[in-house]
Design goal:
Order of helices and strands: EHEEEEHEH
Number of domains: 1
CATH architecture: 2-Layer Sandwich
CATH class: Alpha Beta
Strand order of the largest sheet: 2-5-1-6
Number of strands: 6
Number of helices: 3
Oligomer: single chain
Helix content: 10-25%
Strand content: 35-45%
């Protein structure tokens, strides 16, 4: 099992959500966050003073998927979240040692189905 964390532009959420249905994934968690990378934010003037807005709104998506689903999920996120501009986001993939569905006590791969 793998955990996929994707940091994307907020306006791309509905497009990326289509992947969950298309690939019959178990679910998706979404967190609103603020951050910056190469995009750096923007500057504006308020009452004659320069204000530097370093942090931009982003969404953090988290999915736990079967090993054989990873490539399709990552490709789907890239296809849906891509704009070609700085700030499109990043995807991180990590190993998951185990999972348990609380309601049924199903474990590992069975807990994800």
């Amino acid at each position: 099992m793998k955990k996929i964390e994707a940091y994307i532009r907020p306006e791309k959420l509905n497009d990326v959500k289509e992947i969950v249905d298309a690939l019959h994934l178990n679910g998706l968690s979404v967190t609103q966050i603020m951050g910056f990378g190469k995009q750096k934010g923007w500057k504006e003037y308020v009452r004659g003073n320069e204000v530097d807005h370093n942090f931009l709104p982003k969404l953090k998506l988290e999915l736990v998927v079967l090993d054989e689903q990873v490539d399709a999920v990552v490709k789907g996120i890239i296809d849906k979240a891509y704009t070609g501009e700085v700030g499109d986001g990043k995807i991180f993939i990590s190993n998951i040692d185990g999972a348990v569905r609380i309601r049924t006590n199903e474990k590992d791969n069975d807990a994800l189905k």
